[in-house]
Write a structure and sequence with these properties.
Layout lengths: L7 H9 L1 H19 L5 E10 L5 H6 L15 H11 L2 H11 L1 H4 L8 H12 E5 L5 E7 L2 H57 L5 H18 L2 H50 L5 E5 L7 E3 L2 H31 L1
Antiparallel strand pairs: 1-3, 1-4, 1-5, 2-3
């Protein structure tokens, strides 16, 4: 057995009390229409943005391998759009806007332990952020003043970048600190090795391998010619090389190693500084919000229609209940 809706009682009541429904509709229409003038006017401003590709500044601009760089002028894909939406809907952004525009007073939010909860409720009523079919993001803001609605909409876009910068700075500042320590250590080590080489050069060790080769050849010639004075002088120089040559060569090898390392660590340091100091915006603003003096809320016709329908439904429910009660009493 299937349950079917019996509309005969409803049709009977509508036919019997059509004048009552007419009077109620007219009365509620006048009352609700008048009440709409007591409601505060709200104005709407709209901003539209496209998400950008999200990469670090060093990878996009500074990295030497230009063939593998992404185009920073390309619009982002669906994943980039979802990331931007997460930032736009974050509580951090809501709190920053509430502090800047004093939304607590503007939206009549009480300063209680549930203030953030009520802020979110009002936000859902006054701000609409949604993704469009074109992979863009539309930001609609309602406010009691046209200029304020536009200012809040534009501030939402600007705060999106600042929130991302704050998120990145927690990482980039640590990277800068680590790379700077390594960079300073490399410079200090190179300076120490240079000072050691200069000390050895003052002792006559200018280039160990070349000097050993040259002095050995000259020493052999001096012995061959029987030039004892030159042989003693060259022997002393060879003894100096023998004494300091090993230290010179080790120092020179270490300096060469750090000199080869220096360009890499310097590039990493420059990249870390660029990522920490600079942030490419993650959105392209397709439409800046401007004040619109045309009232967006309340829509009087819709308000009146909803009130009339609600009043008639309530009246119909009461009459059906009375009819059912009367029929039960007669049984």
């Amino acid at each position: 057995m299937t349950n079917t809706l019996n509309i005969k009682p409803i049709w009977y009541i509508l036919k019997q009390h059509y004048k009552t429904f007419s009077y109620v509709s007219i009365g509620v229409a006048f009352l609700s229409f008048g009440f709409t003038f007591l409601l505060p006017k709200q104005y709407k401003s709209t901003s539209i943005i496209f998400p950008g590709r999200q990469f670090s500044v060093s990878k996009l601009v500074i990295e030497a391998n230009a063939g593998n760089q992404e185009d920073y002028l390309m619009f982002g894909d669906a994943d980039d759009c979802e990331k931007v939406l997460q930032l736009l809907n974050s509580d951090d952004l809501k709190l920053r806007l509430a502090k800047r525009f004093n939304l607590w007073t503007r939206w009549n939010i009480k300063d209680t332990s549930f203030a953030l909860h009520y802020l979110k409720l009002e936000w859902n009523e006054m701000v609409n952020i949604k993704r469009t079919e074109f992979n863009s993001i539309k930001i609609e803001v309602y406010d009691r003043a046209p200029q304020s609605a536009a200012d809040i909409a534009n501030a939402i876009v600007s705060y999106c970048d600042s929130i991302r910068k704050d998120m990145n700075s927690k990482i980039t500042s640590q990277v800068v600190r680590i790379v700077k320590e390594e960079y300073d250590l490399t410079l200090n080590r190179m300076k120490t090795l240079e000072d050691s080489l200069n000390t050895l050069r003052q002792r006559g060790v200018l280039h160990y391998k070349e000097q050993v080769k040259a002095y050995s050849k000259s020493y052999a010639k001096a012995l061959e010619k029987g030039d004892e004075s030159a042989a003693r002088r060259l022997s002393a120089q060879l003894d100096t090389l023998k004494k300091y040559g090993s230290a010179y060569q080790n120092t020179k090898d270490n300096l060469d190693k750090y000199s080869a390392k220096y360009p890499d660590i310097k590039m990493k340091y420059d990249e870390a500084l660029a990522n920490n100091r600079t942030l490419i915006p993650i959105e392209f603003v397709a439409q800046t919000a401007y004040p619109n003096p045309y009232k967006a809320r309340p829509v009087r016709a819709l308000w009146v229609l909803c009130c009339v329908i609600s009043a008639n439904v309530l009246l119909l429910t009461i009459l059906l209940f009375k009819r059912q009660h009367a029929s039960n009493s007669t049984v």
